[in-house]
Design brief:
Structural class: alpha/beta
Number of strands: 8
Number of helices: 12
Largest sheet: 8 strands, mixed
Order of helices and strands: HHHHHEHEHEHEHEHEHEEH
Helix content: 40-55%
Radius of gyration: 22 Å
Distance between the termini: 13 Å
Strand content: 5-15%
Bound molecules: guanosine-5'-diphosphate
Strand order of the largest sheet: 3-2-4-1-5-6-7-8
Length: 296
């Protein structure tokens, strides 16, 4: 992820730091290149525009241009604005609610929802000592509930027993009830996906939300789908309301646009990133680390 952006920005910014004095025109020319590089990395257009405007505003002042190392100051401004665009540090899943805390996972089919449900359950169990119950609400694909059951077995986390012919809302209610009775701290609801957003999916999500009262609604989105992931997040946020995002396949060789635009476009934080297929391949999202990596 980010490799080509890293290369492009690296050479543009090296061009700036390599010289002594800088004129306003030099900075503007470099920022035009930065803008092009971000657009090619599939960052949303509005986000690119406001990013470069902000950098320009800060970078063309006399204070920067007349400083001893103007190029390095411009690079620092780019870095800081990149961090700002990515969101704040230390976003994590919020479990600050009476038990059982309900987490609702939403997203399209194939985005990594079920895998991420398992990864989060494992993390909460191992790192925070939580007693977790997972439940698949996917009644459309018969294999889906079985897939979650197998993951539960693999990571040694309880799953709600499968009862055929229940509706997603029935299963959600049963899961919360079972968690209350079983003394679970957290219930993770793995909802059904579709190949694309449609009205029945949104209605189903709204119904589940109403009956399970989730404390977090986490959208799982495939970072490799770039702008589509951003549009998806916007849609889910408007229709269902999300409290955060998990971007999967950050181990892939995507251009990075989704990760870079998500926060600015949706206003929702990226809380976790998926970095592989294994159950441990889940990491916190650190804006500063990513900005460091992109700028080398
Ligand atoms: P769902 O339909 O949204 O529940 O998607 P699944 O959880 O079944 O995941 C679909 C595929 O994506 C599976 O083969 C997962 O192993 C894979 N996958 C999920 N998250 C990641 C990730 O972060 N990186 C990689 N490389 N693969 C992932």
């Amino acid at each position: 992820m980010f490799e080509s952006l890293q290369e492009r920005l690296g050479s543009i910014l090296n061009g700036l730091t390599g010289r002594g004095a800088l004129s306003e025109a030099d900075v503007s020319a470099a920022l035009r290149e930065v803008r092009r590089a971000l657009i090619e990395a599939d960052v949303a257009l509005d986000v690119v525009r406001s990013f470069t405007d902000r950098v320009k505003q800060k970078a063309v002042g006399a204070e920067v241009l007349k400083s001893v190392k103007p190029g390095q100051m411009v690079v620092k401004i780019v870095h800081d604005e990149l961090v700002e665009m990515l969101g704040s540090e230390g976003e994590t899943i919020d479990l600050n609610a009476p038990a059982p805390v309900v987490l609702m996972m939403v997203g399209l089919q194939g985005s990594g929802k079920t895998t991420t449900t398992g990864k989060i359950a494992k993390r909460l169990t191992e790192r925070q000592g939580k007693k977790v119950l997972m439940a698949s609400l996917d009644t459309r694909r018969p294999a889906a509930q079985e897939q979650l059951r197998q993951i539960g077995e693999q990571i040694d986390v309880a799953t709600l027993p499968i009862v055929p012919s229940q509706t997603p809302v029935d299963i959600a209610k049963r899961a919360v009830q079972a968690a209350k009775l079983g003394g679970h701290d957290v219930v993770i609801l793995d909802t059904a996906g579709r190949t694309h957003i449609d009205e029945p999916l949104m209605v189903e999500m709204a119904d589940i939300k109403k009956s399970a009262n989730p404390h977090e609604i986490l959208l799982v989105a495939d970072s490799l789908t770039g702008q589509d992931a951003v549009n998806l997040a916007t849609n889910f946020n408007e229709r269902v309301g999300i409290t955060g995002l998990v971007l999967t396949r950050m181990d892939g060789d995507g251009r990075g646009g989704a990760a870079l635009s998500m926060r600015a476009v949706t206003g929702q934080p990226i809380k976790l990133i998926g970095v592989g297929e294994k159950m441990d391949a889940l990491e916190e999202f650190h804006p500063k680390r990513i900005a460091d990596r992109i700028l080398g």
